[in-house]
């Protein structure tokens, strides 16, 4: 599996082209904005988007877990897109194959399922989560102490070159105080970022991760 | 027989009492109408085309009820009059009511459009007027009501007014589908009479075929054969050397246009895009403040109420000038208008004729139109237009084929009213021009898309839309029905946001993409106001009044029409004529210095030549090519050329184009020489080269936006109830990606690609022009500086790119851009 290793905050981060980060020191796979159940939610409302997007996303997560063999999966918010639907029991089944791995969800604005459901899915729910001075918060914010990992925005970046070329790609963003993960779910859009000169940005171009800033 | 019938007598007597005589074509139409035939009336505006059919129905009615036609009321709906614009409905109703009153006939004339108040609708439900003037969208809304067939039991005639305008659009498809249902409902009765009214277009016969659906040997085309005299005069800059080479505003010439406005009763100023109307409106007020209150704006993004006010004011003659876009193109008969000014190229002969016809409405009067160029070269177009008008080279309107998005919307409409039987509707639909080639397989896909969401049923699925009971399909969810009802009519889409004052008060609509680029506090201009953007809330942009001196003018991309093939070919001829030195056209004479400069720096191409310019600037290496085939063809041709060059060596291009030519720009020298330039235009391997070169995906993505909205994939929310539905919002671009990756066989996706090839790439026209160029002489020049020809292209910002380098290699050469 193709990834780029980025040493930052004295830790080792593997940035995967599958829109996830593997934190080597903590053996943690970090993803954000899965929006599971989104296509099902749309279909329930009579909007015929393809049904299997969520299952495909879980399949990619499965590949990542198999590749990195983490002890924990940290989800930085927006795990499920909306209210309960048939993707919840599907996840429950899927989850069983990784019973030994803990799933930690840092609540995002979309995470509106009842507490009993998370319990039933064996997912620990946190408002914020801190490990080794790294804070996990769904919505990007500048905290005064330590460093924050967040999601929420579905960050993308426009790159331009000579001859007035332009491309829009999903990206990992590492700001001064806060990093933003790309949205993991494929049924998500992009919000364009405008990073400062000294902030690192890695774009995901097809199967590769490239540093552009 | 015709003069003996009672109805004919009543009408001719009524006309005689007003010192009027029917036109020959009107009598002809009445005759066919009385015989129960269908057909098409071809007549210019201002010559009583409405009366050719409306009076036909009156005559027919009096013939059938000679004794009691003055007493008979509540006769049920007799005639549906479909009009593309709500603004036209009022106008037509006014004219009809006037006649009916004078004839002492108690017929009612009703209007049904998005603006019809609920009380009137309910009244209409109880008792339909004899004549109902309706938009295509409102017709579909009627078909979406429970027990709708009852409304149409007495219907004898459907008229599609301004059919040339509807033809070639998806609203035309809505009319075709509506007609197919009405014909189905009329089974067992006398067949429906279906009539169209159309201005002159290149394919009138086909226009009739589309209206009829199935061939009808008795159907006729009635031609008015009234040639309207049109006189074109250009507003010329005093010193051509100082007039800009590029640009699209034309306000520099306003001082020369002002006296024309001031000396006229009422002037219509046509611009090509909505942003331009805003700029012109402000600029007129700035240069001539005493016109405040006497000038107005009219374009498609302005609040309906304001538009209606402008139209009424035009009727009453209280406005001195109105700056407008194609929103006033259609046949509204504003008698006080005596002057028309066209700012910039009208892009086509038909459009120009239509706009010119806005003035001088009295039969026999000369329509005068002023042409105001926005940059110097555009003056050539004025000369070309004169030639094209003389030769009657009017464009065709291509009917839309297999619009599955509209079909899906229509089937859902039938589903929310009484439901439908698959076999019956299949027969009706395949009797339309649009869907006559639809396969059984495509029909089954469409039905399953609506019932199972396009997936084979499996245990996890919760899809809900239409329910299937054997061959009967119906929507049983009230919530979905309500949502669909709100959704019909959003056929002209683009993601538009409403613009409202924060203190309340609706101003208009604006493209989402424009608002997205604004920061709170930025000032922009809409409907003549300068507004400060505050925030977006519930799909509405909230604003307050601004005192800012400089405001951003929104751009509405939709308005940019490409040059038509007809005008393009005349234009090429005009250029070679201009260089011949013996032209008498004032536009070409004044341009002589510019032509001389072009000739000195490079070359002015003759009719059988193609000019290619290679120029180096600090931006990189430019290759300019001038086929004069319109922006769309240029976009594809440029990409094709870029691709063929990039096969010679790895190279990346960015591409720009306008209606005259296109530019390839690269960071390395472009390898094209006299020896190998011809093969770039070869028809050999064209199909494969096109498939690989053209960014069909991007083009299709753009087309998909409308398709997704029409087919009901984009959830737009209920009025005033947005919060609960936030989880259902997505963009068309995201849906496009999702379909492409997960459901590539989706018909809507395929429709997006075929629309891209047909409309965006104009594949047929591209082939023709490549063939022409291949047989032409190709002249490559290497000017030391930018030429008058290339300048407008260079400053055009619409850009595409093509590359033969790997994505990763490209990104390594790029920098983040904000």
From TrEMBL, chain A:
UniProt-listed NCBIfam families: P_estr_lig_assc
Uppermost EC category: hydrolase
Source organism: Chitinophaga oryziterrae
Residue spans crossing the bilayer: none
Taxonomic lineage: Bacteria, Pseudomonadati, Bacteroidota, Chitinophagia, Chitinophagales
Superkingdom of this protein's organism: Bacteria
InterPro entries: Calcineurin-like_PHP (IPR004843), Metallo-depent_PP-like (IPR029052), PdeM-like (IPR026336), Pesterase_MJ0037-like (IPR024173)
Protein name, entry field: Ligase-associated DNA damage response endonuclease PdeM
Keywords per UniProt: Endonuclease, Hydrolase, Ligase, Nuclease
Automatic annotation (TrEMBL), chain B:
UniProt-recorded name of the protein: Ligase-associated DNA damage response DEXH box helicase
Residue stretches making up the Helicase C-terminal domain: 253-408
PROSITE patterns: HELICASE_ATP_BIND_1, HELICASE_CTER
Any one Gene Ontology molecular-function term assigned to this protein's record: DNA binding
Keywords, comma-separated and alphabetical: ATP-binding, DNA damage, DNA repair, DNA-binding, Helicase, Hydrolase, Isomerase, Ligase, Nucleotide-binding
Domain of life: Bacteria
SMART domains in UniProt: DEXDc (SM00487), HELICc (SM00490)
Listed Gene3D superfamilies: P-loop containing nucleotide triphosphate hydrolases
Family: Belongs to the Lhr helicase family. Lhr-Core subfamily.
Helicase ATP-binding domain mapped to chain residues: 30-219
Organism: Chitinophaga oryziterrae
PANTHER family (alphabetical): ATP-DEPENDENT HELICASE LHR-RELATED-RELATED (PTHR47962), LARGE ATP-DEPENDENT HELICASE-RELATED PROTEIN (PTHR47962:SF3)
Cited Pfam families: DEAD, DEAD_assoc, Helicase_C, WHD_Lhr
Gene Ontology biological-process annotations: DNA repair
Matches recorded under InterPro entries: ATP-dep_Helicase, DEAD/DEAH_box_helicase_dom, DEXH_lig_assoc, Helicase_ATP-bd, Helicase_C-like, Lhr-like, Lhr-like_DEAD/DEAH_assoc, Lhr_WH_dom
């Amino acid at each position: 599996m193709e990834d780029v290793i980025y040493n930052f905050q004295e830790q080792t981060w593997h940035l995967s082209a599958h829109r996830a980060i593997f934190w080597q020191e903590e053996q943690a796979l970090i993803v954000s904005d899965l929006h599971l159940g989104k296509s099902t939610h749309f279909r329930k409302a009579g909007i015929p988007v393809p049904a299997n997007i969520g299952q495909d996303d879980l399949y990619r997560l499965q590949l990542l877990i198999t590749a990195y063999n983490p002890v924990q999966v940290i989800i930085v918010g927006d795990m499920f897109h909306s209210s309960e639907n048939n993707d919840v029991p599907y996840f429950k089944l899927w989850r069983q194959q990784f019973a030994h791995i803990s799933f930690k969800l840092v609540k995002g604005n979309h995470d509106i399922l009842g507490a009993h459901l998370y319990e039933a899915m064996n997912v620990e729910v946190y408002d914020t989560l801190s490990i080794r001075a790294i804070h996990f918060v769904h919505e990007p914010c500048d905290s005064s102490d330590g460093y924050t990992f967040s999601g929420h925005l579905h960050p993308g970046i426009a790159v331009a070159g000579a001859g007035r070329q332009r491309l829009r790609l999903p990206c990992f963003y590492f700001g001064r105080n806060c990093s933003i993960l790309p949205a993991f779910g494929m049924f998500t859009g992009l919000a364009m970022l405008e990073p400062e000169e000294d902030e690192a940005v890695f774009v995901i171009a097809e199967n590769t991760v490239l540093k552009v800033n | 027989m015709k003069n003996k019938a009672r109805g004919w007598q009543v009408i001719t007597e009524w006309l005689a009492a007003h010192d009027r005589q029917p036109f020959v074509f009107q009598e002809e139409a009445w005759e066919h109408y009385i015989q129960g035939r269908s057909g098409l009336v071809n007549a210019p505006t201002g010559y009583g085309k409405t009366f050719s059919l409306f009076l036909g129905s009156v005559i027919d009615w009096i013939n059938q009820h000679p004794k009691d036609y003055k007493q008979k009321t509540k006769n049920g709906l007799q005639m549906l009059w479909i009009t593309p614009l709500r603004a036209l409905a009022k106008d037509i109703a006014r004219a009809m009511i006037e006649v009916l009153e004078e004839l002492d006939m108690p017929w009612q004339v009703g209007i049904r459009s998005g603006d019809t108040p609920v009380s009137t609708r309910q009244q209409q439900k109880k008792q339909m007027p004899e004549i109902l003037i309706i938009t295509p969208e409102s017709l579909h809304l009627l078909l979406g009501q429970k027990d709708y067939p009852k409304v149409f039991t007495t219907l004898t005639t459907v008229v599609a007014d301004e059919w040339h305008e509807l033809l070639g659009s998806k609203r035309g498809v809505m009319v075709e589908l509506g007609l197919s249902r009405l014909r189905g409902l009329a089974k067992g009765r006398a067949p429906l009479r279906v009539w169209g009214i159309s201005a002159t277009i290149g394919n009138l016969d086909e226009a009739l075929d589309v209206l009829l659906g199935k061939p009808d040997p008795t159907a006729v085309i009635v031609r008015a054969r009234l040639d309207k005299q049109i006189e074109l005069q250009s507003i010329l800059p005093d010193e051509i050397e100082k007039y800009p080479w590029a640009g699209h505003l034309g306000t520099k010439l306003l001082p020369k246009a002002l006296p024309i406005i001031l000396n006229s009763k009422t002037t219509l100023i046509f611009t090509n895009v909505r942003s331009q109307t805003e700029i012109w409106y402000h600029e007129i007020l700035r240069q001539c403040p005493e016109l405040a209150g006497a000038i107005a704006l009219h374009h498609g993004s302005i609040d309906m109420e304001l538009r209606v006010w402008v139209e009424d004011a035009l009727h009453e003659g209280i406005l001195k000038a109105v700056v407008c876009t194609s929103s006033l193109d259609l046949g509204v008969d504003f008698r006080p208008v005596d002057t028309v000014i066209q700012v910039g190229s009208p892009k086509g002969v038909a459009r120009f004729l239509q706009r010119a016809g806005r003035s001088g409405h009295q039969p026999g009067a000369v329509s005068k139109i002023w042409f105001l160029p926005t940059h110097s070269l555009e003056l050539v177009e004025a000369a070309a237009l004169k030639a094209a008008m003389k030769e009657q080279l009017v464009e065709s309107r291509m009917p839309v084929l297999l619009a599955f998005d509209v079909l899906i919307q229509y089937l859902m409409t039938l589903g929310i009213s009484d439901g439908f039987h698959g076999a019956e509707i299949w027969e009706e639909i395949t009797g339309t021009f649009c869907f006559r080639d639809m396969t059984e397989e495509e029909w089954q896909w469409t039905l399953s898309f609506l019932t199972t969401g396009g997936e084979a049923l499996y245990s996890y699925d919760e899809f809900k839309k239409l329910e299937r009971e054997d061959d009967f399909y119906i929507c049983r969810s009230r919530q979905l029905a309500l949502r669909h009802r709100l959704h019909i009519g959003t056929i002209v889409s683009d993601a538009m946001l409403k613009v409202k004052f924060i203190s309340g008060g609706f101003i208009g609509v604006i493209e989402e993409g424009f608002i997205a680029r604004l920061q709170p506090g930025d000032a922009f201009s809409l409907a003549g106001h300068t507004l400060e953007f505050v925030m977006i809330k519930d799909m509405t942009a909230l604003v307050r009044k601004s005192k800012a001196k400089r405001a951003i003018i929104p751009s509405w991309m939709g308005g940019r029409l490409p040059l038509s093939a007809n005008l393009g070919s005349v234009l090429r001829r005009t250029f070679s004529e201009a260089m011949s030195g013996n032209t008498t056209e004032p536009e070409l004479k004044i341009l002589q210095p510019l032509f001389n400069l072009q000739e000195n720096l490079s070359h002015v191409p003759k009719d059988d030549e193609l000019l290619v310019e290679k120029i180096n600037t600090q931006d990189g290496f430019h290759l300019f090519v001038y086929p004069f085939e319109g922006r769309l063809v240029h976009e594809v041709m440029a990409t094709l050329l870029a691709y063929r060059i990039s096969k010679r060596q790895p190279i990346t291009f960015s591409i720009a184009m306008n209606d005259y030519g296109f530019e390839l720009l690269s960071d390395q020298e472009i390898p094209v020489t006299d020896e190998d330039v011809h093969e770039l235009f070869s028809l050999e391997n064209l199909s494969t080269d096109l498939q690989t070169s053209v960014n069909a995906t991007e083009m299709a993505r753009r087309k998909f936006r409308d398709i997704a909205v029409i087919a009901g994939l984009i959830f737009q929310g209920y009025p005033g109830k947005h919060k609960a539905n936030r989880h259902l919002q997505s963009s068309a671009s995201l849906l496009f990606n999702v379909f492409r990756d997960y459901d590539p066989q989706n018909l809507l996706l395929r429709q997006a690609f075929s629309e891209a090839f047909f409309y965006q790439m104009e594949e047929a026209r591209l082939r023709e022009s490549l063939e022409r160029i291949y047989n032409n002489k190709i002249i490559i020049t290497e000017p030391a500086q930018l030429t008058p020809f290339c300048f407008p292209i260079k400053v055009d910002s619409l850009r595409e790119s093509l590359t033969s380098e790997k994505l990763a290699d490209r990104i390594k050469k790029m920098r983040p851009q904000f």
